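Students often ask why inverse folding is considered easier than folding. One informal answer: many sequences map to the same fold, so there is more than one right answer. In these notes we will look at a single instance of the problem. The structure comes first.
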């Protein structure tokens, strides 16, 4: 039984159930998570760039996270956790859906990767982590303020927090919900536009949690180029933060 003070309330049971139903198909690049697969190289490129910049690591270093503890919060079936492990990290990856974690564990075993997968919310993390990632997750939790505070609490003093999330704009409503979910490219019910956070809103939550935003970069999409990093944050964006002061 969780105590009331624990941030267990950040998990939205409906969201967990929705993504749990997608678990078996998660690693199929043409399945229900196809867009995540298309986004992943750009996400990894951004994460790698911020890691190198923060810890002054050579971009050609093959295991830049060797010796570092990493937490991937809202990990799904491991699309980000596995590459982080390959970069040398000791990875703890958590997700609210037990079905998804079961798929993640099986897939990691098949790849020969040792990742500490756990079912639950932020309260399942222990100690602090050099890198905390939570990509396309904050828009699915029931209490974004408590969630961001929990992420900040898991961050080591010299740690780095990397988030990504859709912006709450007319463009994101059109692209992600009207077109994306309407066409079936994104499973229906994946997004609630009213829960999307603007960069200013997320920046304020990070500031209230004692963190300082060091980078904010857009994630754009076009039919010709696919996903790419951009100054345009109207669809989706990344935020990198560290402890203030």
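Output (designed amino acids):
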């Amino acid at each position: 039984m969780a105590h009331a003070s624990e941030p267990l309330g950040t998990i939205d049971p409906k969201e967990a159930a929705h993504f749990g139903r997608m678990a078996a198909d998660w690693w199929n690049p043409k399945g229900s998570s196809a867009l995540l697969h298309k986004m992943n190289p750009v996400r990894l490129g951004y994460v790698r760039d911020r890691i190198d910049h923060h810890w002054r690591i050579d971009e050609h270093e093959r295991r830049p996270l060797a010796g570092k503890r990493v937490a991937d919060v809202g990990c799904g079936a491991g699309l980000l956790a596995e590459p982080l492990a390959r970069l040398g990290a000791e990875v703890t990856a958590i997700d609210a859906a037990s079905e998804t974690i079961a798929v993640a564990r099986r897939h990691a075993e098949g790849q020969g990767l040792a990742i500490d997968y756990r079912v639950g919310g932020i309260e399942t993390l222990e100690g602090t982590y050099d890198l905390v990632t939570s990509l396309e997750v904050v828009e699915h939790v029931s209490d974004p303020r408590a969630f961001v505070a929990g992420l900040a609490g898991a961050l080591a003093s010299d740690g780095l927090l990397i988030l990504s999330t859709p912006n709450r704009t007319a463009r994101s409503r059109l692209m992600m919900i009207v077109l994306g979910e309407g066409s079936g490219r994104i499973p229906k019910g994946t997004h609630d536009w009213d829960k999307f956070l603007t960069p200013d809103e997320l920046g304020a939550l990070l500031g209230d949690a004692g963190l300082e935003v060091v980078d904010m970069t857009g994630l754009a999409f076009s039919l010709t180029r696919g996903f790419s990093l951009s100054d345009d944050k109207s669809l989706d964006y990344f935020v990198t933060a560290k402890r203030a002061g």
